# Entry
Amino acid sequence: MSEHNVYVLPGDGIGAEVMGPAVAVMQAAADQVGCAVNVTQGLVGGVAIDATGSPLPEETLAAAQQADAVLLGGVGGPKWDDLPMDARPERGLLGLRQALGLFANLRPALLFGPLAQASSLKTELVADLDILIIRELTGGIYFGEPRGIEMRDNERVGFNTLVYSEHEIERIARVGFELAQKRNGRLCSVDKANVLDSSQLWREVVSNLADDYPDVELSHMYVDNAGMQLVREPKQFDVIVTGNMFGDILSDVAAMLTGSLGMLPSASLAASGVGLYEPVHGTAPDIAGEDKANPLATILSVAMMYRYSLDQPAAADAIERAVAQVLDAGYRTLDIQGNEAVQSDQLVGTKAMADLVLEHL
Ligand code: NAD
# Structure
């Protein structure tokens, strides 16, 4: 029997609230496909600050580095908002991403059929939407040097550097090609090669890799057009690969197509195969502790973990199928209720929603 070590970091607010149910789903899926998942739990974010003074205790970092995959709830909240920038809960998450070398951020925009009415676009444009955005996470303009604010000609000037080296582009592009191979075989690389030198190199490196993946149809698109196409005809895309800043923006646009933050999982992968899995949403202090949070984003993050780090696609399929069945049966948490007339016994809280997924597993 294959064994996997998963390190669980519930974090703060609803992150902690949805984690228990998500771990229960993880164990049930493991039982179903006959693998073993050993779960250990640690501290990150605000709870770690309270317990140890640091948002990312050394012990947490060491355990994360040993694990096959890390599942994280969310960090932050008003209690820690007044701390200096580098002592805040979010530092814990950034430190973790950096230390694990997580360079590829995978953000699926998957719209379960029954939720199409929750999207801000017309139902027929988004029903059964299934796109995957791959964002480069450790390079580009967010990290490039030099950066800063300085005096030039008697006024302040702010500047950043958009820098990508060939190996960084190749590494993320290969993730794009390989995942396109596992999906519908179409990869769209997004850049701004008509204006930016770094994008010209990006386009050249990506194009040069295409011969290695003859089964993938590669296209290129400028980022401004990609933003427009995502809201005009989103189903034209299968996999999108792009740099850090463009991916940051486009993945949020794509997220909105699906209607609710409470449904969106994400994965961040390192070259070693280790991955950090987390819902896209934050800690939602406005509803924390009220059993109102939608647990499905975290549960779907568990499915991604089975698929991308633990090589257990059957467990991933089982979880995604169970979620689809629960939604098909009409059950909703408040955030995905939309304008539907949901029967009162089908409007459920965090725990009941997770229990329904468990039943359908
Ligand atoms: P948020 O995602 O926490 O909440 C935005 C809105 O969406 C809120 O109204 C919230 O109630 C709702 N929402 C979010 N997730 C939901 C769910 N699963 N079910 C139902 N409703 C849900 O974003 P925010 O309000 O900007 O940030 C709150 C805190 O979370 C801040 O401290 C922020 O720094 C932190 N944050 C953490 C992460 C992370 O850990 N990855 C990401 C984003 C924000």
About this structure: Residues 1-111+260-361 form a domain with the Isopropylmalate Dehydrogenase fold (CATH 3.40.718.10). The mean pLDDT is 95. The chain is about 40% helix and 20% strand. The chain has two domains: 1-111+260-361, 130-257.
